[in-house]
Write a structure and sequence with these properties.
alpha/beta; Cobalt-precorrin-4 Transmethylase, domain 1; Methyltransferase, Cobalt-precorrin-4 Transmethylase, Domain 2; 2 domains; 5-stranded parallel β-sheet; 5-stranded mixed β-sheet; 13 strands
Length: about 240
């Protein structure tokens, strides 16, 4: 049986990859991925063959992985974060239906929601949801409805892809929607370049988040009605009893 590993490499730092991910890359003949992600691991696996594609070439990347596997090579297709969270795992399973002789093994990784949450403190201790603000594959009307429903239900909301050159005002639009149900004083957090050089983090109220400029390498957390700031950290209580309080 031919083998492809679909590997979540985590947010960026080699130390944040799982051992299973490292072992899969060590066993692979070929490592395939988006150029930016390959650059994150290339120095740690210098003896491997690397193949890359650019942005918006996801289908081509998957087909390349299967074509390499059909040549008898053990292949790793890498994704940042977790391959099953806005990653390539779903597309690989779909395309894999055409290749019954190729075994797919999907390996999880640390996604930005949890990697960045650890930097901020503990914003995801209670119920939360992930919403991507990218409307390349999802109509904005559906994203808008999800934001409104999540805010009304008092979820902590983690936002992926909060901005880009063509979507500079999308975070502001998202904040305006959340403000229909949440207070301007709601505690929020942002982390840029999670696990990579230049990592920065900030805790701020929703009223300030509305006017904050971010980029595609930034992840955003909007707290719920119980989220608070403690000593510069963002914390969402789950309700555990603390003696004396």
């Amino acid at each position: 049986m031919k083998q492809i590993y679909v590997v979540g490499i985590g947010p960026g730092a080699y130390e944040q990859m799982t051992l299973a991910a490292v072992h899969a890359l060590e066993k692979s003949d070929v490592i395939i991925g988006y150029t930016v992600y390959v650059d994150l691991v290339k120095d740690h696996f210098p003896q491997k063959e690397f193949l890359t594609t650019g942005m918006k070439k996801e289908v081509d990347r998957c087909e390349l992985a299967f074509s390499q596997a059909m040549e008898g090579k053990t292949v790793s297709l890498i994704c940042s974060g977790d391959a099953g969270v806005y990653g390539m795992a779903g597309l690989m399973v779909e395309i894999g239906a055409k290749y019954p002789n190729v075994e797919l093994t999907i390996l999880p990784g640390v996604t930005a929601a949890t990697g960045g949450a650890a930097i901020l403190g503990a914003p995801l201790i209670h119920d939360f949801c992930l919403i991507s603000l990218s409307d390349l594959l999802t109509p904005w009307e559906k994203i808008e409805k999800r934001l409104l429903c999540a805010a009304q239900a008092d979820f902590v909301i983690c936002l992926y892809n909060p901005s880009s050159k063509k979507r500079r005002d999308y975070l502001q639009k998202a904040c305006d929607l959340v403000l229909q149900y949440q207070s301007p004083e709601t505690i929020c957090g942002i982390v840029s370049q999670i696990g990579r050089e230049g990592e920065t983090a900030r805790v701020l109220p929703l009223s300030q988040l509305c006017n904050t400029q971010v980029d595609m390498f930034t992840t955003v957390w909007i707290g719920n009605s119980q989220t608070k700031e403690l000593h510069g950290k963002m914390v969402t209580p789950r309700g555990y009893r603390i003696d004396g309080q």
